[in-house]
Design brief:
Order of helices and strands: HEEHEHEHEHHEEH
Strand order of the largest sheet: 1-3-2-4-5-6-7
Structural class: alpha/beta
Oligomer: single chain
Shape: globular
Radius of gyration: 17 Å
Strand content: 5-15%
Helix content: 25-40%
Length: about 270
């Protein structure tokens, strides 16, 4: 529940956002049944069943990369990559980075997208659904571990899975593009009615627990990419994490990191490391 002060702050932020511009664009940041292990869940959001197979639509479950002419087959020495989109987005935002990875030699059978309802709770619903999808990727590919690449809100979902949802042993590399890892003030504009927005606010239950103790736990290798002109993640330095490889990408808008050539090159180099 929001306190009286938080409700007043949310209303004020909403009024300012309506006078200026939408705080969270349609393709800004951005999913199995039991709640993840770790801190007790805050009472928020309604849980529903897991996504356990290939998706029939872009907004839920697990979907392999579309056919591209590249050969499909068993994964080689590389880990399969699972892309996790952000708030109010869908797996389509990964088209450019997927194409770059295919050009680097990845097969379609090594690239997966996790699609989900971005208006639900990170800790009560989405992290557990992501866990089921990662398990399915590992079953399909025979891989022991996966690499996770997340944009914006997806960074919180994937971090909770790694830190509290039992994902640590199954994730090799974790990449965050413009993730509100310490919260973002723009999320107050929708926090009154949207659980995911509440999860993204500075000081939220999710943000506090993710950043308590070790921000980059376990043997997972972590990397973040952040812009000093991000209009969605405020402050800009909400993205970098202690213990991660933190890369500034210059002055890019929030969604532009998804198609930026230099950012793509940095992500791909990290995945090869």
């Amino acid at each position: 529940m929001l306190t009286v002060r938080q409700r007043m702050l949310a209303l004020l932020t909403l009024c300012l956002a309506l006078l200026a511009a939408p705080a969270l664009p349609a393709q800004a940041s951005g999913a199995p049944s039991a709640p993840p292990a770790g801190p007790p869940s805050a009472a928020s959001g309604a849980a529903s069943g897991p996504a356990s197979g290939p998706a029939s639509g872009p907004a839920s479950g697990l979907a392999p990369a579309p056919a591209s002419g590249q050969p499909s087959g068993p994964a080689g020495a590389r880990n399969p990559v699972v892309f996790v989109h952000g708030y109010n987005a869908d797996p389509g935002v990964w088209g450019s980075l997927r194409a770059d990875l295919r050009a680097d030699g990845y097969a379609d059978s090594e690239l997966f997208s996790f699609g989900y309802d971005t208006h639900q709770s990170v800790n009560e619903v989405l992290s557990a659904r992501l866990a089921a999808s990662v398990d399915e990727v590992r079953r399909q590919t025979g891989a022991a571990r996966v690499d996770l690449v997340a944009h914006s809100f997806g960074s919180l979902v994937t971090r909770w899975y790694v830190k509290f949802g039992g994902g640590g042993p199954y994730v090799d590399r974790w990449v965050s593009l413009a993730g509100p890892n310490r919260g973002t003030s723009t999320a107050w504009a929708c926090a009154l009615w949207d659980q995911a927005c509440r999860d993204m606010t500075p000081g939220s239950y999710v943000v506090k627990n993710l950043n308590s103790g070790d921000e980059t736990p376990g043997a997972v290798r972590y990397a973040t990419f952040w812009s000093n002109c991000d209009e969605v993640v405020n402050p800009d330095d909400s993205v970098p994490l202690t213990g991660a490889v933190n890369t500034p990408v210059g002055c890019l808008k929030h969604n532009d990191l998804l198609g930026d050539d230099a950012t793509s090159a940095g992500v791909r180099a990290f995945l090869r490391s």
